[in-house]
Amino acid sequence: MNKVLIIGAGGVGNVVAHKCAMVPEVFGEITLASRTVSKCEAIAADVKMRTGREIATAQVDADNVAETAELIRRTGARLLINVALPYQDLTLMEACLEAGCDYLDTANYEPKDVAKFEYSWQWNLQERFLSAGRSALLGSGFDPGVTNVFTAWALKHHFDEIHTLDIIDVNGGNHGHAFATNFNPEINIREVTAECRHWENGTFVETSPMSLHQSFTCPEEVGTYEIYRMYHEELESLVKHIPTLRRAQFWMSFSPNYLKHLEVLQNVGMTRIDPVIYQGQEIIPLQFLKAVLPNPGDLGERTKGRTCIGNVITGVKDGQPKAVYIYNICDHEKCFEEVGSQAISYTTGVPAMIGAKQMLEGSWRKDGVWNMEQHDPDAFMADLNAHGLPWTCVELTPDQAAAFQVA
Ligand code: NDP
């Protein structure tokens, strides 16, 4: 019987726990651990109510390798699903190596004191995972995650060569708060205030944050939104593993209201991550801001509307130019009804469960450290349809595809 250890009991951890519990033939014994054990217990009670399954809970400090390794041994876990924060990626990978366990996460490592995220630290563990006979799957959320698999699937079934990729992440949801972030505010604000980078003819080109935007009309009447070009971590692995890519860009929708609040918060220094002294005590403004903002895990109850995340891909097939758009639409209220979380947590947690399923079933379990697009996409794509994130692929006309070729 497969034993798994989920670490992190936030919005995403809640979804992963529920979705794993719904697939008992793969996830035989589940332990949910986090820093605050009461959050694990609340999730476990909800899982029991909705699915009838018991899951174990535990307290752990994921920054502490020895403590986490001990928990892995105690639970007998074969796979650790990391849905804590990107700060914990390296300590959790170390703990897996120490205790003999496979590893999966949904976001790449980021040091606490530098707003910089990249794969290098985790890719550097390749030799150690190989020689230990352990497998790690990086970035098994939606973006990164499903967007990587969409690209791999398009390459396998629709193209001989991919030339351009535009990942478009629209959240058409409304939570009714003046300002809130849909996932961990600290990570979210670090991401959207970073310099923009996109791939252009063999190199990353840097531009000012949010300096390029355009209007995008989602399919299935999700609506028309302003999308902003920004850097996103899957670009780094995709351009490495798909060398024919000439341009790769990532776009995300933001409402004027979100951007107005963010600008003010930045201007007054509330998004800083260096310590300031307040009444004799060191505080990090961004961490303080997180404490006063709504908890993303609590947004589900009041969020209405849908998300629409997908890839516009162009390239050639049999010598002819071709373009496709592959997307998923997810309804916030339906997610809340199913697992008690909004769609941002749902669209991250479901692919984490599906990635874990591929590893436990063996098809994605290869020694070493892997990104999503390096595995065969077909079973993962089928599981998206089976477990709550159905997708659609449409062919685009050259004119439609050209709308995204923004210089
Ligand atoms: P939350 O902040 O809601 O939850 C994080 C959880 O991790 C909390 O339960 C927190 O505990 C726990 N945690 C933090 N530090 C430690 C520690 N040292 N030891 C043990 N537990 C710890 O975040 P989300 O659920 O919104 O996001 C989870 C992950 O998913 C993040 O890495 C995020 O970047 C990623 N993500 C990925 C996406 C994708 O599409 N790929 C999209 C959205 C998110 P406590 O409650 O005590 O603070």
Explain what this protein looks like in three dimensions.
Strands 7, 8, 9, 10, 11, 12, 15, 16 and 18 form a nine-stranded mixed sheet that branches. The relative contact order is 0.17. Helix 1 packs parallel to helix 2 (37-51), helix 3 (65-75) packs across helix 4 and helix 13 crosses helix 14 (378-386). The chain has 407 residues and is an alpha/beta fold. The protein has helices spanning 11-21, 37-51, 65-75, 89-99, 120-123, 126-132, 146-157, 185-192, 234-241, 256-267, 285-292, 332-339, 343-361, 378-386, 398-402; strands at residues 3-7, 29-34, 56-59, 79-82, 102-105, 135-138, 161-171, 196-200, 203-207, 213-218, 223-230, 247-253, 276-278, 281-283, 306-317, 320-331, 368-371, 391-395. The model has no long low-confidence stretch (mean pLDDT 95). The chain folds into two domains: 3-138, NAD(P)-binding Rossmann-like Domain (Rossmann fold, 3-Layer(aba) Sandwich); 146-339 and 390-404, Dihydrodipicolinate Reductase, domain 2. 36% of the residues lie in helices and 27% in strands.
